[in-house]
Amino acid sequence: MSTTVSAAPPDSAPANSRTQVLFASLVGTTIEFYDFYVYATAAVLVFPHLFFPSGNETVALLASFAVFGAAMIARPLGAIFFGHLGDKRGRKITLVAALLTMGIATFLIGLLPTYATAGWIAPFLLVVMRLAQGFALGGEWSGAALVATENAPPGKRAIYGTFPQLGAPLGFILANGLFLIIAALLPSEDPSRPSEAFLSWGWRIPFLFSAVMVVVGLWVRLNLVESNAFENAVKKGRVRKLPMAEAFKKHWLELILGTFYMLATYVLFYLMTTFSLSYGRASETGALPGLGYDYTDFVLMMIVGVVFFGIFTMVSGPWADRWGRRKTLIWVTLAIAVFGMVWVPMLSSGFVGVMAWLIIGFTLMGLTFGPMGALLPELFPANVRYTGSGISYNVSSILGAAVAPFIAVALWSYGDGSPYWVGVYLSIMALVTLVALLVGTETKDVDIDE
């Protein structure tokens, strides 16, 4: 773990302006999460119809979620590759490469043939593009978090670290907002199924639109300069030939702790987005009974919840700077464990209960996700920070996010349509994270320039 904070050297002033840092860390993660959410929405709404037609609604949905989870498997590989590049060549070039990879993969998904026209080649190509998305996101988050925290003024690292985290709610709103607009322009007579025009070509628009956003993101990031933390590592000869080997040899405990710090966050994240969209739209008369909301209505309800996600992501930064990352997250994680146990009464209370469920869930999401932008980078010294924070963040994506929607559907089915066991699953994962937080130590006073 990094050493205790000391007096800052004269050359430790931020290399980039505050506006550059905040915008560059925000715009990239917004694009990356937009691309990810576009797929997540299509995994529920479109892909079971177009890429996995099995004649069984549940099997098609599980197949679509399996491909969704495949990207999480690629994320640690991306973290290793881009982490190596970022710790050896610098943050700037790595962030540009990650953004390009994600943008190209997302754009190509919008051009893919469907199962009806290409047979098994269609889902195969979808898996390849999905793996590329995961590979890119594996290098994106840690780089954006480092840009924010390594350029933050003293005492404000957690506040700055919330800006890359804010890309998640913004990306969700952009992706689902665009899907809503397209669905409204291409209405369906059958509320349980998108219109033929939407299934034919409308779903492709959000994927193709990502190219425009990538151009903006590249322009912003190409104007960055390297942080002092990385430059100091270069000047002092601390850059390692194999950063990953260094991280595993000297910082293995931090890698484990960082992975489990993120576990509850990831499970909550994907249950409140991907699974909730499936549960909210499922009819009481369907293969898996659910709330039976129209797609448009439920996504609008989710967007209201995601607004709270964004607000409390920003609220979490000052809290974590004032009280510490660990203390803040211990209380939030306890609240997540309780939240998982009260799902059924809330979801059984009609519209008001469902809205309360969405608002509380996304509020907790903001409070747990926000401090991670500072906490994970603070666990590692500058010469392995990109690699270490990236591996922890993305290995946790396998343990949490990759399997969360899949397990949730299985538990939903096991409970005969009741989400009770899904809530229990969330509570158990929260308790695992709580143990890691109790074992770990506070990081808000470490010197990240060392």
CATH-scheme architecture: Up-down Bundle
The whole-number mean of residue pLDDT values reads 85
Q: What percentage of residues falls in helices of 4 or more residues?
A: over 70%
The profile of the biggest β sheet is: none
Give the CA-CA distance, first to last residue.
10 Å
How much of the residues is beta strand, in percent? Answer: under 5%
Output the structural class. Answer: mainly alpha
Can you tell me the residue ranges where pLDDT is under 50 for at least 5 consecutive residues?
2-13
The helix count comes to 21
Radius of gyration: 21 Å
- Note the overall shape: globular
Order of helices and strands: HHHHHHHHHHHHHHHHHHHHH
CATH class type: Mainly Alpha
How many domains make up the 3D coordinates? 1
CATH fold field value: Growth Hormone, Chain: A
Number of strands: 0
The CATH H-level homologous superfamily:
MFS general substrate transporter like domains
Domain Major facilitator superfamily (MFS) profile: 21-444
Transmembrane segments: 21-47, 59-81, 93-112, 118-137, 166-187, 207-230, 251-272, 298-317, 329-348, 354-379, 391-414, 420-440
Pfam family, one: Sugar_tr
Subcellular location: Cell membrane
Give a quick precis of the structure:
By secondary structure, the chain is mainly alpha-helical.
